[in-house]
Amino acid sequence: MSTHSEKHLDETLREEVVEHRAVEDSRRIEPADVLNPFPRYRKMREEHPVNYNEEEKLWVVFRYDDVLRIVNDYNTFSSERVFARRRQDEQLTEEEREAARSLLSTDPPRHKQLRNLISQAFTPRSIAQLTPRITEIVNERLDLVIDQGRMDVVSDLSYPLPVIVISEMLGIPTSDRDQFKRWSDAIVSPHEEEAIQASREMRSYFKGIIDQRRKQPKNDLISDLIASQIDGQHLTEPELLSFCILLLVAGNETTTNLIGNAFLCFDEQPEVMDQMRADQSLIPLAIEEVLRYRSPVQLLVRAVAKDTQIGDQAIQAGEVVVPCLGSANRDEAQFPHSDVFDISRTPNRHVAFGHGIHFCIGAPLARIETKIALTIMLERLTNIRRVREIELEPIKSTFVYGVKHLPVTFKRA
Q1: 124 lies in which domain range?
Q2: CATH number at residue 403
Q3: Which domain of life is it from (predicted)?
Q4: Over the stretch 141-153, which tens digit does the pLDDT of each residue have?
């Protein structure tokens, strides 16, 4: 968004999109700066670990211990109150405001009820059952490019893979995946008008699917959610819509950027690919280090429920705090030599998937998709190298980290 248009945002709308723009000042100059915010994070940890952003009227928190406290202490740092601020936006209808509510914007006890319900689809057993299909998809995607000796890791693999998997879980056509990608990218972008429009289109789309499943249930997650009950009551339509949108967007963005970010890391240390090819037991360790080193989600947002203190700063009830996961995962106090990508790092208690009650429910799926993708790529391809003549283009988001495209060359194994 341009500086000129920013001046015309009213205060209410600024609050509604605050999580999209919380650290935009660190990401306005060049793509290289967007993809390397880590020197700034270090400077903030050392000089302003709890920093008040006067323009956005919020606190950004950079140190690991402070971030961990915020994501764990839901009584003090509320997700529900952030949602309550958004409900005041006059641009949204009441139905749209209710549909915007999800696991990400509820506190206990409702959060626990909703999480317990959806977690049934993400048990270790359920995820393990997806392994053959994920393997099939990865091989199909590589079959399309293996004779070319080059591919775009993002558009050819890391984007279609999770969209196909989540689409099949929900029971919706994967033929619509290009549309899903457009919606997903718009929702995580810093441009609130695009995000609102994409959300409206997604709600309309899923409303049609839900109406179909009510009349004719199928063996899919949407049908299961329609039939599910909490304390004897079925989920409301806004709750069903929020589940569908959250699963599609989160399932897409997390895995897409985790796989892409992995190859950004391997590009800096190509010997890591040789190590994993020789010993596949290193692949899960490498994935955890990618999550720490280049976290797909860099920021969260919380509203302060009661007066508190973070570090030396007194924070008043009603204020907004933004825990910076990307900075916490580079905190030297928790991770010695934090700016070194080290797949043998142990322990590796990163917070890339959050922590506590809001720990990413799709984390097991993202991990297994990435593990299978890396395993098969290392088995079928050698000498994987990024095409450096093509400049990396960061995705347009202030809280999701990744690149739009990642062209590589390779040789068939």
Answers
A1: 3-412
A2: 1.10.630.10
A3: Bacteria
A4: 999 999 999 999 9
